[in-house]
Structure formats: C-alpha cells, structure tokens
Amino acid sequence: MWQQFLKHLKIYALLIKLNAMRQLEYRVNIVLGLLVEIGYLGVKLLYAYIIHDTGVHISGFAPQSLYLFIGTFILMTVFFVAMLQFNIMAFDRQIIEGEFDLILTKPVSAQFLATLKYVETWMVIPNVIVGLGLVGYGWYASGIAFDLLHVGLYLLYAVLGVLTMYCVFTLPLLLAFKLHNISAFHSLIWALWDFNNLPHRIFPSPIQIIGTVFFPIFLITNFSPLAIMGQLSLGEMIWGALAPLFLFLLTCWGWRRAISTYESGGG
Amino acid sequence: MNKYMWLLGMGLQKALTYRVNYLVTILAAAFPIILQWMLWQSIYTYTQADKLYGLSYSDMLSYVVLAALMAQALRTGFEYDMAEDIKSGGLNRFIVQPLSYFGYRLSVFVGTNLGYFVTTLIVMAVALWVATTYWALSIDVTHVALFLLSAVGAFFLQFMLFYLLSLTAFWLHEVWALFESVRVISLVLSGGVVPLSVFGTSFEYYLSLLPFQYLIYFPLQTLMGVLSTEQVLSGLVLQLFWTLGLFLLSTVVWRRGSRSYLALGG
C-alpha cells in the first residue's frame, strides 16, 4: 500500500515536470492563461475588497481573520486549477472517444491516471502569490502564533482539504460512465467551488450541516483557518480528519463499481 | 431573409436539444446568489446602514439576484465556433455561398439564445415578484418596459462584443484564454457580480465611458427605477451607439482579417 502510494507520488512528480515542459512550448498560452487566472482572482478579491471597505465582522470573525479564509480559498484554488480543473473538463471526452481504453492498459492505477494526468503549472502563479500574501497577512493580523503546532495544524487540515477536494469533485465524474456526456455538471462544479469564497459559518445551519457532513465541500478551505484560530470543536477536528479518509475510500469503491460498467466507446 | 430565419429556427432547435444543460446552468447560478445574499445580509446587519453604495438592503439583494440571472441571459459560446471556422477553414463555404457570415452568426446566435434569454427573463420576473412582495422593492410598469428594451439592446451589444473578439482568431492561434479573460473582465465591469457603485464614484465614471455597463448595470438600474426617463433614454441611445460602433469596427477588422485568412482545411 505504502509502496504503491510512493510509486504514484513519483509518477505524479514526473507528470508535473512533463506538463510544465509541455506548457513551456506555448509561452503565449501561459501569458494568456495567467490573464484568465488574474481575472478570476480579481472576482475573488472583490469579496476581500468589500469586507475591507465595510469592515464587516462575519459570524464574529474580524476582517483580518476573513483574509485568512479568503487567502486559504485562493491557495486551495491553486490545487483545484492545477490538479483537477482540466482533468474534470477532459474526463467525459476520454470515455466517449475511447481514450480511456489506453489508460486501462497502463501499469498504474487507472483512477490516478484518468483523474490526475493533466497538471496546470504556470497558470496558478498569481493565485500562489496572492493566496500566500493574504494568508500571511491574515495570520499576522489575527495574532496567531507562528509556531510548529499552528503551522503543522494548518498544513494538516490543508492536506486533508486537498484530499476532500479530490474526492468531492471526482465522485460526480463517475456519472460519465453511465451518462457519458456530463458537460452540464461542469458549471455546477465551478459554482460549488466558489461556495468556499467566504467562511462557511456565514450560511444558515442547514447549509453548514449539508456542506460539512453530507457533501463536505466546506472541509476543503474552512477547517485549516478555523483550526489555527482555535475555533474547531473536538468533534469537528475528528470529523475533519476522518471524513476525507472515508471519502477517499468511497471514491475508490465508487470508481471500481463505475469502471465495471465501462464500455469502450471509441474506435 | 428566409434563409436567416431558417438558421434562427435551427439555432432554436439546437438550444432546445440541450434544455437540461440550461436548467443545470440556471441551478449553478443559484450558488453565487446565495453566497452574495449571505455576505450582504451580514454587512447590512453589522453596519446597521440604511444604504450602502447607494443601495438599501432590499435593493442590493434584488440587484445581486437579477444581475446573476441577467449574466446567464447574456451567455455566449459562438466565439469558439467562429475561432474554429477561421482556424480550420470553415469560412470557405461562405466564400462560395450567397450567405453573409455576419448574418449567419447573428441568426444562429439569436436562435440559440432566444430560448435561454426569454426563459431567464421569466425567471427574472419570478425573482422580481419575490423582490417586490418580500423585499419591498418598488417597480413601475414603465421601468419594466424600458428594461425590456435595454435588455434586448444588451443582448445585441453582447453579440457584437464577442463577435468582434472572435475575429482575433485571424491572427491568434490560441484564443480560449483571451475569450475567458474578456468574459470575466466583462462580467465584473458590466456589474454582473456587484453594482458598479461599489467601485466608487470616480471609477464608476470611467466605467461609464466603456460599453460594458450597458450589458447589465444599465438595464438593472432602469428596472429598479434608479435612473430618470431622460437618463434611460440617453442610456439607450449610448447602448445603440456602442452596438453600431462595434458593428462598424468589426466590419473593418473582418476586412483586414480576411486578407490574412489562409482558407486551410475543409
């Protein structure tokens, strides 16, 4: 199990390198891609601007704490765009056109290759810079200690958030094995992702419960800032650690079920 | 004229084929609305202000909901088809056929989007009913009529904006990033995310010199009765001016682009 994990980690590192080199071939595309990301970043920062301008406290959080949330959301967007976005967009096409057959013949996990093979590297740079800046400022202005415990806690829930993100957005893709064309769900996925732009405690309790327990999208960006702010209850901390693992097992199980119904579609 | 009406009908048929797609898109529009609703509710509750950025809480809420829907009503997508036509030689058939490419694109756009546009306006009417009943938004019938006029103007202005943008495919190999960046910039500058008054008076003034505000901000201000009749009429004239201006500009760009067209493929 551990060896398999390390093997896939090495392959993923190679995929990052290969994708980065491939993308460098078309440098104008990189510049234009950066433009797109800066545009979306601007929309995300609009919320930060409004919060700064009005000085609003949301659910007891002062604006500087809210920057921590928005910064974490922007940093998580790095993983979303780099790891998932283009794989999500291409997923149903590889099933419709039979490209998936080729993936099945590779000596690595088909799930790994089909859901993670495209890595966007250069386009996410503005998000990295702005995200780190906002998290750094929010961290400092909120008076949170910058020690091993807090940094470790933040990173732990961030890693678990990335795992949750992978599962939450991979599970709906499995519908492609049944419905084939799932392009309509893409806009739904992007909209769901933007739900994390502000702390989940801004929403009414039923939405918070649904988004934390049943469709745990709020675990992705909320738990790492909440953990370092000491705002997570013990129950939430345990749930935040276990839910991603359950979800991952569920995703792998769902994948095995879905793949058993796969019929080669292309030539 | 008949051939363009036929193309319009074809576009409408195509749009109806993917009606579930449209319903999911409208559903997706609900998420940013909920997010903004919660944000503005928190802001108005915290600040206890009667008005922020010139709008009361009910006005802001109505604006956010209607703007998100209006943005959906103005969706495009034909720019990718145009870029493909230019890149892969799809324009060739228009050289030999008695069909104007502009007329073809406009007819297909109207046909494909008319259903979306009207359905979204109906959803907006429901949202408006909610706003007037529960959020105490006052709406005049004259404002609704003027809004419909400005919404139709916005529909054609949006077409012209993206038609002109698509012509860059004559010179650029990869255009998706340009399309997407303009789309997101246009969404913000047209007031599709937040009212332009949020950006401050001076920035709002500079934005008024651009065509974007006539897509969403101006029609919604008309609907909400923020503008006087004179302001609405002059706004409609400016909207028409921008549409015609972009049309003329696109004619010039088309001519120049045609010269560099290689007629590859097909």
Automatic annotation (TrEMBL), chain B:
The keyword Membrane applies. The chain crosses the membrane at residues 20-40, 60-78, 114-137, 143-172, 184-207, 232-254. Keywords: Membrane, Transmembrane, Transmembrane helix. InterPro entries: ABC-2_transporter-like (IPR010390). The keyword Membrane applies. This is ABC transporter permease. The lineage of its organism: Bacteria, Pseudomonadati, Pseudomonadota, Gammaproteobacteria, Alteromonadales.
